[in-house]
Write a structure and sequence with these properties.
There is one protein chain. Helices cover 38% and strands 26% of the residues. It is an alpha/beta fold. The strands form 2 sheets. It has a 6-stranded mixed β-sheet with strand order 6-7-8-3-9-10, sandwiched between helices. A hairpin with a 2-residue loop joins strand 4 and strand 5 (63-64). The longest helix has 18 residues, at 166-183. The structure holds adenosine-5'-triphosphate. The site of adenosine-5'-triphosphate has 14 residues, from strand 2 and helix 1.
Length: 235
Amino acid sequence: MLRIEGLQSGYGRIQALHGVDISVAEGEIVALVGANGAGKTTLLMTICGNPRASAGRVVLAGEDITGLATHHIMRRGLAHSPEGRRIFPRMSVLENLQMGAAMADPAHFAQDLERVLGLFPRLAERLHQRGGTLSGGEQQMLAIGRALMSRPKILLLDEPSLGLAPLVVRQIFEIVAEINREQGVTVFLVEQNAFHALKLAHRGYVMVNGKVTMSGTGAELLANEEIRAHYLGGG
Ligand code: ATP
């Protein structure tokens, strides 16, 4: 579904990605874990076309999308729930969801809205409330719901657990599993919370300083001594 080959990118003269190779098969949940500043967010943003890759390729469903403008990439079935959620705080929940559907076929809107509100009943209760008045967990639900409104083949999630209480993190990850299992959406997730991410994922990758240093099934990585010491607090 998504193949990243030798990808390099950065910001001006600062190179953040030094040749990244990652693949995500259709129907999988794949997690990328790594410390703050490893380049995880830059990878998702480069997949979405901004910043542009300076070398390497991004292939989505067999098509080379490297260098395409972001809206062209989104139109090909990729949706991104960005770090820090970036919902529109002055717009209502419904309006935020409408923004997510802006490039989708309007004929599907009612059905897609029903599907998203079914996944997130809390959003249904707050449909006319402004986005900015929601709790952190509800804003994360809205960011994921908004991304789903475009009927993506693959959903990119950047740090969905950031700043949320453990119970809310568990709820969000359960819903991500449901989106994958029940709705067949492929998920590529980046997280500093390695424990939850690797428990959820079929496969995972570890990134250090803009390079992938390890990969394996979620269970293999969770059992790995080095990962336990560095990313799971030695537990
Ligand atoms: P976090 O989880 O904290 O976002 P990350 O693994 O996602 O960390 P990135 O945000 O991708 O890491 O950062 C990778 C590198 O690129 C870091 O060295 C960071 O300082 C640098 N960087 C990120 N954004 C910019 C920017 N807008 N301009 C310049 N350098 C940046």
